[in-house]
C-alpha cells in the first residue's frame, strides 16, 4: 500500500471554486505520485470559514451553522476526486450538524463512489466547552482493496482502547488526522500514535493541519509534521525506533510511505515481542487494580 499524508496548509480562500481547485490540485499531486490512500488532516475544512462574513469568522458559535451549506459540496468534491483518480481519500474533517448537535466527522471516500465516515469520539476542552462540538458514536474498520484501516481523529489517538478495538477488528493501519496549535499538542498526538503502533503492532499515520489563520480562533495557529509509525521490530524503520517516515515540521508537502502489510502480520506472530497477542495478558494482570503499599 502506498500512503500519502498531507501536511496541509490552511489558506484564506476567495471563493468555493478556489477551495475546490486547491483540494483538487493537492489530490492530483499525490495520485500522480502513485498513492493509493490519501489522508487530509483534522479540520482542514475550516479554511472554508474564509468564505463566511467577517462577523461569522470572528464568532466561533456562528461558524458552525454557517458552514453547513458547504457540507454537501465538500463531500461531493472529495467523492469525485476519489473516483477520478482511483484512490481512497480521507477528507479533512468537517463539523457536521446531526440530530441536534455538531460532531467532528472525517469522510472516507472510495474509488467506486462509496461514502463512509468516522466521527471523533473523545473531545478536547475547546471543542466541548467553547465551540459546542459533541462526541460521535462508534468505531468503524474500512475493509478496502489495499487493506483494513481505521481512523482515530487527533485526541482519540491518545486513548489506547479505541485503537485496540480497531486492531481486534482486523485493522492493520490507523489513520490519525490532527489539528494542534502548540508543539506540545502535536507531540501528544505523535506519541499517542507511536504508542498505538507499539501496542497493536500496526501502522499508524498522522496527517497535520499547518499554517496560520488569524481570521479564525479555531485554527489560528497550527503546528505539526506528518509521520508513519510501525512496530519496533526489524524491518520497519531505518533507526529501529518505529519511525517509518517523518515530514519536516510545518512545511506544506505530502509525505509518502510504502507499507508492507504482509510483513506487519508476520511480525505479530513471530516478532521479537508479540505485544498485540499479549494484550489480554496485560489486561488480566491489571484487572485486580494496584495494591497500595505504605512505607
Automatic annotation (TrEMBL):
Pfam families on file: CN_hydrolase
UniProt-listed InterPro entries: C-N_Hydrolase, C-N_Hydrolase_sf
Domain CN hydrolase, residue spans: 1-261
Single GO MF annotation: hydrolase activity
Keyword terms, alphabetized: Hydrolase
Keyword flag Mitochondrion: no
UniProt cross-references to Gene3D superfamilies, sorted A to Z: Carbon-nitrogen hydrolase
PROSITE patterns: CN_HYDROLASE
Name of the protein in question: Putative amidohydrolase
Organism per entry: Deinococcus peraridilitoris (strain DSM 19664 / LMG 22246 / CIP 109416 / KR-200)
